[in-house]
Amino acid sequence: MNVQEDFPISAEVAAAFDSYPAEMRAKLLTLRQLIFETAAALESVGEIEETLKWGEPSYLTPQTKSGSTVRLAWKAKKPDQYSIFFKCTANLVVAFREKFPDQFSFGGDRSIDFKLDETVPDAALKQCIALALTYHRNKTLTPTQRWETVAHLA
């Protein structure tokens, strides 16, 4: 699947991806595709807006306002690691850690971190992304109910 053709990218966001080392750029573009695919599989999330926040590719749900922002980044201070970031005050990473304690490495309450040579558990990550993209719509549900709303992505 060609990321560029399936999910067009703006010149501004493409420049951010291009600033990353080639191997990290490929990994982050795969996460980008996973975000768009997950959003497409969710009812009432609407179109995803891709923009830059803090110079990093970021994904929002402006049409429905159903979700919390998701960001992708690589940091030079950790050259073998790339991450998907979530709003820490939403307690999403806390929920991810409870559901998937052994499947991910976490960066505090802000991110899921991956090593360059690590295989990403796509099904579990799709559920985490879905929880973020539906956060505002489902935040009053119990944790179990919230996970049930995204279980079909597993």
Strand segment tally: 6
Helix content: 40-55%
Report the sheet with the most strands, covering strand number, pairing sense and barrel closure.
6 strands, antiparallel
Summed over residues and divided by their number, the pLDDT gives a mean of: 92
Share of residues in strands: 15-25%
CATH architecture: Alpha-Beta Complex
CATH topology: Aspartate Aminotransferase, domain 1
Please name the defining characteristics of this protein.
40% helix; 6-stranded antiparallel beta sheet; 154 residues; Aspartate Aminotransferase, domain 1; alpha+beta
Question: How would you describe the overall organization of this protein?
Answer:
The protein has 154 residues and is α+β, with helices and mostly antiparallel strands. It has helices at residues 3-6, 11-18, 22-41, 92-99, 122-133, 135-138, 143-148, and strands at 49-53, 56-60, 70-74, 81-86, 105-107, 111-115. A 6-stranded antiparallel β-sheet has the order 1-2-3-4-6-5. The two termini are 20 Å apart. The mean pLDDT is 92.
Task: Give a brief rundown of this model.
This protein is an alpha+beta fold. The protein has one domain (3-134): Alpha-Beta Complex (Aspartate Aminotransferase, domain 1). It has helices at residues 3-6, 11-18, 22-41, 92-99, 122-133, 135-138, 143-148; strands at 49-53, 56-60, 70-74, 81-86, 105-107, 111-115.
